Structures are given as C-alpha cells and as structure tokens.
DNA sequence: CTAGGGTTAG
C-alpha cells in the first residue's frame, strides 16, 4: 500500500519518482508524472528539463515537454533555457532557437554566460560564424568564459584572423584565456604563417601573472619551431624552468623541442649526428624521451629522407626499453617504403605481428605502401585483401601501388570496386588513376578520368594531376598537345610539369621543344643537375657536342653540382651501394669481370650498347667503357653474382634509369632467366624474359 | 565551451 505523502512533500515525491523513471530510461513516464502531478513548482519544472537532458532524453521529447510547459505558462530559468538551446543545436532547429532568443530579448531576460554560449554555438552551427559573432557583440556582459567561447568558435570555423583579433581585444579587456585557447591560437598562427602574432601570444603568456600549464609552453615551442625559429624554440625549452620556479618540461615539451632540435640539426648542419648530440644533451639534463618523443624523431628523420637514421633511432629506442606503439610502426614502415628496404620492412611487419599490432588500419595502409614500393605487389595486395573495413587511404595506396608498376587496368578495376563500396574518391585517388594512365600510356582513359574528376566528383585538378597529364601526353608522343595543355592550365606550371615535358622530348627526340621546356625548367630549378643531364642526353643523341659543352660550362659557372648517383642491392643482411662518389665497392674487380662476361653474352642475343647515353665527345670504344660503369649495371651484376639462382634481383636507383642500362637489363633477364626488379626515381621496372613492364616508356 | 604533442596515400 502506497502511503500518500503529506501535502508539503508533494514536490519531493514527484522529484524522486521522476528520477526513478529517468534512471530506467523511461522518459515519457517521467514526464507524465509531471503533467498529472500534484505540484506546480516552477523550480522543479525547470530542473526536470535539465535532468531529462542529462539522463540522455531524446531531443524531440525534451522539446515537446518544453512546449507543453510553455503552454502551461511556466517561467523558465537560464539553466532550463540553456538546455533547450542545446537541444535546438542537436536538432539543428534554428527556427525554434531563434524563437527562444526573441523571447529572451522581449522579456529583457538577463542573459548569462551559459545562455550566450549556447546561443553562440547554435548560431555558429546553424547559420554561420558571423551571426555568432553578432550575438557575442550584443551580449552586455563579456566574462572570461564567453571570450574563450567566442575565440574557440572562430577558431573552429577557421576564422583565424577573427580569432587573433578577438584575442587582442580580450587582452585589452584583461580577460584570461584558457590554456586550450592559447594552444589553439598558436596552431592557428602556424597555419597562417603569422609568426608575429605568435610572438605576441608568447609575450602575453610570458608577461601575464597567470600560471600557464605545460601545454601552452609546449605549443609556444612548437610555434617557434614550425616557423623556423629553431634556436628560440630550443632556448625556450631549456629556459622553461627558469620562467616559472619549479616548472619542468614534460615529455610533451621534449617532443616539441625534439622536433625543433631535429630540424635544427638538419638545417644547421645537415646531419643527424648533431641532432642526436642535442638530444643527448637534453637527456643529460635529466629528461627522458617517451614513445611519442622517439616517434617524433623517427618521423622527423623520414621527412628529411634520412631513413637509415630513422631505423637507427628505432634500435636505440628499444635499447632504452621504450615500447613502440602503432604510430611508431607506421613511421618505421614509411622509413622502409621510401628507399625500398624490403627486408627491413618485412622485419618490422613481423615485429608488429609479434607485438600484437593486428587490424590497425594505419599500419595496414603503411604496409601496402611499403610492399608495393619494395617490389612485392602480390604481398601488398594480400595485406589489402585482408583488411576488413577498407578506408579511402587503403584503396589509394593499393591503386598507387599498381600505378607505379604501370598496371593501369588493375588501377581502374580497383577504382570501380572502391566506388561500388560507396567510398568517394578524393584528389589523391585521381593522382593514382592518372599515374596509372601515364605509366601504361593510356591516353584516352587519362582524358576521361581527368575530365571526370571535376565533372562527376567536383574535385579541382591540382598541379600533380596536370603533371600526370603532361607526362601522359608527352610519353604517348603528343608533344604539341602537351605544350598546348601546359599553356591552357589555370595554374602556373612548376618544375614537375616542364620536367615531364623535357623527359618526353628525350623519348621522342624533339630538340626544339626540349629547349623550350629546359629554359623554363632551369629558371625554376637552377641548381638541379638532373635537368641539365636530361638536356645533355638529348644533345648527345643529335651529336651536338658544342651544345653539350656549352651546357657543361654554364653548369660550372652557375656552381651546379652534379648530384650523387647511386644504386644499391641487398645481399643477405647487407646493403651494397654503388655510387659515383666515395669509395669503390671492395669486390669491384670481380664485378667488372662478371660484367664483361655478361655483356659478351647479351651481345650474342642482340644487345648493342647505346652510346648516346654518354655525354662526352670521346671515342665510341671509350663510350662503351663508360657505359659499363653505370651504377645500376654494377648493382645488377653484383646481385646476379651473390643472390642464389631463381630469386629475383632487386635494385634501387635514386635517379632515372639510363636507356642503355634499361636495354641491357632486358637482355640480362633473358640471358640469365631472372626477374629483375629495378625501382628508379619515378617508377618500377620489372624485367623478365627480355621485356620490361614499363613498355620502354619512362 | 575548457585537453593540447607523435600515425597512412601524390
């Protein structure tokens, strides 16, 4: 038998029944308690709305209850109205929110901070940032909280300038910015390249008597670092504890500082040993890098294409008993993918499996990239097949994998399958598609995808896409069309565009167009020796030795250094590098002996040395000798000598493979019945039975 | 509304 409560307790009973219902998730019963209830206590009506919302009541229901209460003539307090405005935001019901707003103004309601905040959020989401800013300007009482809100909202809407301006105003109003705002503002400065504003924020933080947390300082360090003021970044790091007594950097500051330091090491000395030396100094100050710090170092090295140091840091990290996480693995796989370190990549793949990193989509994507760049497309595809929920980057990586092999048809099939799963392509997808076209010489398909990206997917082509098209048209022999295409481009042609055209002129032996392309290219990249070599190559084909000499002289006059050319191949655990600089390989004699044998073998099969590849006006016999010294030939030969029969030879070269080496490799694959994988500057060559997967266009 | 540092594809 339920005891009837005494009159004075009615409200309390309603309240507890309501809570019971709410706790069981029965919102509408809870509401009924109210509608049929005994009491008309306004405070309770209001708190009901709040509780309803905080127990996760359905937004539509809350709004219904609110309207019902409104009809009953209930007066609302600011908390209840805030709840209603938040509900409006959730439902994107700007119309009702505005009615509430109008009601507030009409009744001269005291708009408190939370209410303004809710209004600002509602207007920003439903109508745009300008109206949110207007609400802010019309709010009479601008407390700290509201300042922070309006700055945050502007940052969220990517109104960086607005946010910075508001920060200035809030300084004048002596409002205290939260640490989060400081962090976000500094990030905005980074995006804007607004270094002076960043410095002002630093000054404001430094001058104020407010205590800032580590994150603020850390982002200050980062903001100096990303703007290239690495010395300042380092000094702030080292002086942090001086600025506030007892204030010690944490692992976060170390990470920020380390990034600065790594870049400092590279930019000042161009070497990672010095970066490591500074890291050691940091350690001697008593700070221990954590997994994030190490990962930052590793990815920093990768960004500077210093893959060996990245791998070195990895072993050092393990020596110091810091466990890698999935982010570290991703960076490391990137370190292997860049220079095609297949064996190392396989090792890290095993490592990650042993340590339980399975089903990580980032790792899987990095694996696809690593295996395709390492020359094992089948394994890359296997990894791809095993991914249950394929994301856009997975598809993109896989497509790019097939593209660099020149397997355009497979790229198209992947694209169609991807679209069938409902994933929308992005700009990178089209780069993969167009790369597939250019490496397979599929001109019609290239045009179709190029037209389709804007028309069907509203993706504007970027310089990468234009570059693919120029490369595609040029390689296919449509040189004039390629030039027209460049002239019709809405954006300014960069070095990749003219470089693609120049390379095409080499294939199709068009010296007039080559000179036009080269003129533009040299203006954009005056110190890139590869460009000069390409033109020199074309002059050599036409035996124009005067021009070759002139070019060589202007290179000397300009101080263009011929960049180091190297090829390498891996035998067991060792990487053997063949380079135009530095010491020769210790087994050089044996290698040349084998190479002579090889050349006489393939001559019988029809190989003729392509002496046009030698840009010196010397005797033809001497030219043939020069050809033999090409690093890719040495690496291939060494592979043949050391890698057991039947296994493919894998060679990586940092620049484009030369035509003679390309021809020779085809014959070698035939003579010795070997698969030869050669990754050069731009793509993959798979030599097999006297043919190359690139169809002789690269 | 406050918490921010290191991950994948050209």
Automatic annotation (TrEMBL):
Gene3D superfamilies hit by this protein: Tetratricopeptide repeat domain
Superkingdom of origin: Eukaryota
Ranges occupied by PPR repeats: 213-249, 290-324, 391-425
Name recorded for this polypeptide: DYW domain-containing protein
InterPro entries, per the entry: DYW_dom, E_motif, PPR_At4g14850-like_plant, PPR_rpt, TPR-like_helical_dom_sf
Repeat keyword on record: yes
Species annotation: Cajanus cajan
Boundaries of every DYW domain copy: 606-698
GO MF term (any one): zinc ion binding
Keywords (A to Z) from UniProt: Repeat
Biological process according to GO: RNA modification
Membership in a protein family: Belongs to the PPR family. PCMP-H subfamily. Belongs to the PPR family. PCMP-E subfamily.
Entry GO terms, CC: mitochondrion
């Amino acid at each position: 038998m339920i005891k009837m409560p005494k009159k004075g307790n009615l409200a309390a009973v309603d309240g507890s029944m309501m809570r019971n219902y709410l706790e069981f998730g029965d919102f509408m019963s809870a509401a009924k308690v109210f509608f049929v209830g005994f009491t008309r206590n306004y405070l309770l009506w209001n708190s009901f709305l709040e509780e309803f919302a905080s127990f996760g009541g359905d937004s539509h229901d809350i709004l219904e209850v609110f309207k019902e209460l409104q009809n009953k003539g209930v007066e609302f307090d600011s908390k209840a109205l805030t709840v209603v405005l938040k509900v409006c935001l959730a439902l994107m019901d700007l119309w009702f929110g505005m009615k509430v707003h109008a009601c507030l103004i009409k009744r001269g309601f005291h708009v408190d901070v939370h209410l303004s905040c809710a209004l600002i959020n509602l207007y920003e989401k439903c109508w745009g940032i300008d109206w949110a800013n207007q609400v802010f300007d019309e709010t009479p009482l601008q407390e700290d909280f509201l300042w922070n809100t309006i700055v945050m909202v502007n940052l969220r809407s990517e109104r960086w300038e607005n946010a910075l301006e508001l920060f200035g105003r809030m300084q004048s109003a002596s409002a205290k910015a939260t640490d989060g705002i400081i962090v976000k503002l500094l990030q905005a400065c980074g995006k804007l390249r607004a270094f002076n504003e960043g410095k002002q924020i630093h000054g404001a933080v430094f001058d104020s008597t407010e205590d800032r947390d580590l994150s603020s300082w850390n982002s200050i360090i980062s903001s100096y670092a990303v703007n290239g003021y690495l010395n300042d970044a380092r000094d702030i790091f080292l002086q942090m504890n001086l600025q506030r007594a007892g204030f010690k950097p944490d692992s976060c500051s170390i990470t920020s500082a380390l990034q600065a330091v790594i870049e400092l090491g590279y930019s000042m000395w161009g070497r990672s040993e010095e970066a490591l030396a500074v890291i050691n100094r940091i350690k001697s100050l008593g700070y221990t890098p954590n997994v994030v710090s190490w990962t930052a170092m590793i990815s920093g090295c990768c960004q500077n294409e210093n893959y060996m140091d990245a791998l070195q840091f990895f072993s050092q990290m393990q020596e110091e008993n810091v466990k890698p996480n999935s982010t570290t693995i991703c960076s490391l796989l990137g370190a292997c993918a860049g220079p095609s370190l297949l064996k190392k990549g396989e090792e890290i793949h095993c490592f990650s499996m042993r340590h339980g990193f399975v089903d990580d989509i980032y790792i899987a994507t990095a694996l696809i990239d690593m295996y395709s760049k390492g020359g094992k497309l089948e394994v890359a595809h296997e990894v791809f097949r095993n991914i249950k929920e394929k994301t856009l980057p997975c598809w993109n990586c896989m497509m790019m994998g097939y593209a660099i092999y020149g397997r355009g048809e497979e790229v198209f099939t992947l694209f169609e399958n991807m679209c069938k799963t409902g994933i929308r392509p992005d700009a990178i997808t089209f780069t993969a598609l167009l790369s597939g076209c250019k490496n397979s010489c599929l001109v019609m398909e290239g045009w179709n995808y190029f037209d389709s990206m804007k028309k069907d997917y509203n993706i504007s082509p970027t310089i990468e896409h234009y570059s693919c098209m120029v490369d595609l048209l040029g390689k296919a022999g449509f040189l004039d069309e390629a030039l027209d295409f460049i002239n019709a481009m809405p954006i300014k042609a960069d070095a990749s565009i003219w470089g693609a055209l120049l390379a095409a002129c080499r294939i199709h032996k068009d010296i007039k167009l080559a000179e036009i392309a080269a003129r533009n290219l040299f203006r954009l990249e005056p110190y890139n020796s590869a460009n000069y070599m390409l033109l020199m190559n074309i002059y050599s084909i036409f035996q124009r030795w005067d021009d070759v000499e002139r070019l060589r002289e202007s290179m000397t006059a300009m101080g263009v250094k011929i960049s180091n050319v190297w090829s390498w191949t891996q035998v067991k655990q060792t990487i053997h590098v063949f380079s135009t600089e530095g010491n020769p390989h210790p087994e050089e004699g044996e290698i040349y002996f084998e190479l002579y044998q090889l050349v006489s073998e393939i001559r019988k099969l029809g190989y003729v040395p392509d002496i046009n590849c030698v840009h010196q006006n010397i005797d033809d016999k001497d030219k043939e000798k020069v050809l033999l010294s090409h690093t890719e030939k040495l690496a291939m030969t060494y592979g043949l000598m050391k890698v057991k029969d039947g296994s493919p030879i894998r060679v990586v070269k940092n620049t484009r493979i030369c035509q003679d080496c390309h021809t020779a490799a085809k014959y070698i694959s035939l003579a010795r019945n070997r698969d030869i994988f050669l990754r050069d500057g731009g793509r993959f060559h798979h030599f097999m039975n006297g043919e190359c997967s690139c169809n002789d266009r690269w």
